[in-house]
Amino acid sequence: MDTRTLFGALLIAGIVGGFSVNSYFMDNGTEDNIIDVEVGSEAPDFALTDSEGNSFNLSDFENEKVVVLEFMNMGCGSCHNFEKEVLKSYCNSTTMPEDVEVISLTQTEDVSQEDLEDRAEGKNWAYVFGSEEITDAFGADRSPSIIIIDKDGIVTFSESGHMTESELEERINEALA
Hints:
Helix content is 38%, strand content 20%. The protein folds into two domains: 30 residues; 130 residues, 3-Layer(aba) Sandwich (Glutaredoxin), CATH 3.40.30.10. It contains five helices and seven strands; from the N terminus they run αβββαβαβαββα. The strands form two sheets. Strands 5-4-3-6-7 form a five-stranded mixed β-sheet. The protein has a two-stranded antiparallel ribbon with strand order 1-2. The longest helix is centred in the first third of the chain and has 25 residues. About 11% of the residues have low confidence. It holds the Pfam family Redoxin. It comes from Marine Group III euryarchaeote CG-Epi1. This is Thioredoxin domain-containing protein.
């Protein structure tokens, strides 16, 4: 087989393989920046334990607060940057409404209480132990993933990836309206 024929065969195989892989992922619902939980649907209730050992449920905030969930991994650089550049600024802002609760859920396996306490130190939002069940319930398999739930328990925003502070504030204000 000459070089041209070999190159042509490899090129065709690569194209066909690319289509096959792409159609597999598209048929299985995997797309960038899309989370499985549907905007407009009721958020599933769940129990969480924060970095101080306190337990609470999502339903504890119903009719009182908009809840912002950040699904994150402790070693994720994008998560760290999102917390540092967006959440810290938003949560420390004097304009942050009192009826907003921000919660970071770790998806990191084998995270210790001490690790979670260290991560939460100096931050004025909750850090909690996540679980595979909660991650699956929201389809938040990428980090960071942001879910915003209004006071009625309805998901108003659901996306993975980075967002700016102004985008976050806009989405929270939409949930407050």
